[in-house]
């Protein structure tokens, strides 16, 4: 069956780069409800608790949890056949871009101007609020977020992301 890959985490170095797990659950639920697609959840071994919780809450046979189970070579093979990769800013996003797989990505604490994917097949969500970007590359990529939850990531809505998913999937055929 056709599938998309979803990376719900970001490096433990900067947890603020994560789009909220609740939003991933909602958008994946909408994908599964509308499309005859499987969703493969990916991440590192350290990401397993978050991905397991998302998988449990989705409770769908169409959602496979492969977090911590793939080598980089296996991840590349997974991406090779993926219709789309949805990802926070992180290594898997950049691998998908290098492999020319269409992506949807989320930026906030980090700037997509320097680190974001380029080209028509990539959609980048970045709200550019007054405190973004806040990662300081001169201080081990530290973040000093003023808010209890990073507003730059919270501001990206499920509705706008799902609309972009629909656009990307219709373009993919």
Distance between the termini: 14 Å
The radius of gyration is 15 Å
Number of strands: 8
Strand order of the largest sheet: 3-2-1-4-5-6
Backbone shape: globular
Biggest pleated sheet: 6 strands, parallel
Order of helices and strands: EHEHEHEHEHEEEHH
Poorly predicted spans: none
Mean of all residue-level pLDDT scores: 87
Count of individual helical segments: 7
Our estimate of the beta-strand percent is 15-25%
Which secondary-structure class do the elements indicate? alpha/beta
Features:
alpha/beta; six-stranded parallel β-sheet; 8 strands; globular
Protein described:
- Helix content is 38%, strand content 17%.
- The chain has helices at 21-34, 48-58, 72-80, 91-98, 112-115, 151-154, 158-172, and strands spanning 3-7, 38-42, 63-65, 85-88, 103-106, 122-125, 135-136, 142-143.
- The chain has a six-stranded parallel β-sheet, with helices on both faces. The chain has a two-stranded antiparallel ribbon with strand order 7-8.
- α5 links the parallel β5 and β6 (122-125).
- α1 (21-34) packs across α2 (48-58).
Layout of helices and strands:
Layout: E1 3-7, H1 21-34, E2 38-42, H2 48-58, E3 63-65, H3 72-80, E4 85-88, H4 91-98, E5 103-106, H5 112-115, E6 122-125, E7 135-136, E8 142-143, H6 151-154, H7 158-172
Parallel strand pairs: 1-2, 1-4, 2-3, 4-5, 5-6
Antiparallel strand pairs: 7-8
Helix pairs in contact: 1-2, 1-7
Brief summary of the model shown:
Helix content is 38%, strand content 17%. With 173 residues, it is of the alpha/beta class. The chain has a 6-stranded parallel beta sheet with strand order 3-2-1-4-5-6, sandwiched between helices. Strands 7-8 form a two-stranded antiparallel sheet.
């Amino acid at each position: 069956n056709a599938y998309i890959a979803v990376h719900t985490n970001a490096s433990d170095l900067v947890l603020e780069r994560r789009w909220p797990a609740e939003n991933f659950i909602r958008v994946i639920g909408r994908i599964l409800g509308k499309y005859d697609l499987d969703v493969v959840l990916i991440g590192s071994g350290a990401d397993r608790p978050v991905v397991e919780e998302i998988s449990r809450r989705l409770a769908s046979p169409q959602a496979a949890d492969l977090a911590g189970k793939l080598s980089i070579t296996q991840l590349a093979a997974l991406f090779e056949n993926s219709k789309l990769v949805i990802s926070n800013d992180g290594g898997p996003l950049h691998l998908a871009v290098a492999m020319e797989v269409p992506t949807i990505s989320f930026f906030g604490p980090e700037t997509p101007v320097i680190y974001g994917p380029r080209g028509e097949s990539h959609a980048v969500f970045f709200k550019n609020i007054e405190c973004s970007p806040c990662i300081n590359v001169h201080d081990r990529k530290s973040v000093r977020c003023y808010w209890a939850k990073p507003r730059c990531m919270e501001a990206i809505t499920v509705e706008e992301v799902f609309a972009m998913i629909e656009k990307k999937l219709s373009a993919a055929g």
